[in-house]
Amino acid sequence: MNDKPIYVTSPLLPSLDDFTSSLKEIWESKILTNNGSFHKKLETELATYLKVPYLCLFTNGTLPLITALQALRITGEVITTPFSFVATTHSLWWNGIKPVFVDIDPNTCNLNPEKIEAAITPRTTAIMPVHVYGKPCDTERIQEIADKYGLKVIYDAAHAFGVEVNGESILKTGDMSTLSFHATKVYNTLEGGALIVHDEQTKKRIDYLKNFGFANETEVVAPGINSKMDEVRAAFGLLNLKSVDQAIEARHQVAIKYRTALQDITGITFFDDMPNVRHNYSYFPIFVDEEKYGMTRDELYFKMKEQNVWGRRYFYPLISTFSTYRGLESARPENLPIATQMANKVICLPMHHALTPENIEKIISVIIKK
Ligand code: T4K
Question: Coiled-coil regions in this chain (predicted)?
């Protein structure tokens, strides 16, 4: 227990010298925020990297969700998943929208499209799925349903930085997608996020909304908010963009090692890569079958902690069990059997670019030696 803790993640950091040079530039220009040159450059470079035409930077990954709902004027009820980080559902609540939880698919932990139609009511205006762990949702099926009922689709793609299906960015699907650049993510700007939209007009509108609604010096065209990314974070993000591919490849290698070592452990399952998908290996969830493994998920989780291996039970407890939401009809556990089951089995193993072979060996040995 004297070893250093192995956390679930570790942030990608640029070289301190490079960052210091950027800071010097910022000190000299004295432009700290409000669409400065680092901000402009990062928007352009990220749009290119992510293969999307229009991207708006934000100060975190929660405000683009809230802003997307405002921009699309979503009201009434929105169908969403309980198996996510709580920010997904909070964004609906902050807009006075009623979340309607729908169960997930056990093969991906994403919203199960086959369960969506039964949850649609005359008040439903949109669907908010999450590409959880960076695994792409069934975007085609979701779009078919949305088109049939005239619903908007806003993807919470907080985990899906750089994920592609058949060479196309997953962020191009739906009406809008959001990203998080939090320190714990594959790509970070300390804190940060983005909203991906599909046309210039909408980008303009989002840029107004994230700056109090100002269209110019004297005109406020909407009740906007302040969610602009500052120059320091943008500079940090520009540097991190240079090494993110390498970091994703390092994560890929960790995933290969985990899969090889854990494939024959009875009672432990995990996801394989999906065909034609460029994954980002943002998380490595394993699912513990108590009877077959001979230990409960929590027993393993606390045993790992004792050994200084700090996995996380993302996404337990389900959002639908939190006090704000548990009174909703759709939050009843009997309505969400698969999500409940998966949340009770999951442990996300440490997954990041800086895990050493010794770290990986230690993590695996805690799971293998019961
Ligand atoms: N939608 C989805 C689907 C999301 O997952 C999230 C965020 C959002 C929306 C909202 O995006 P943001 O507004 O956050 O940009 C973390 C993150 O705070 C959160 O961003 C993330 N999802 C969520 C899944 O995880 P915690 O409470 O688990 O983080 P924390 O502080 O316990 O960190 C985990 C481990 O990472 C630590 O044990 C050590 C390591 N770590 C963490 C930080 C913050 C570091 O090494 N350095 C650090 O700076 O929530």
Answer: none
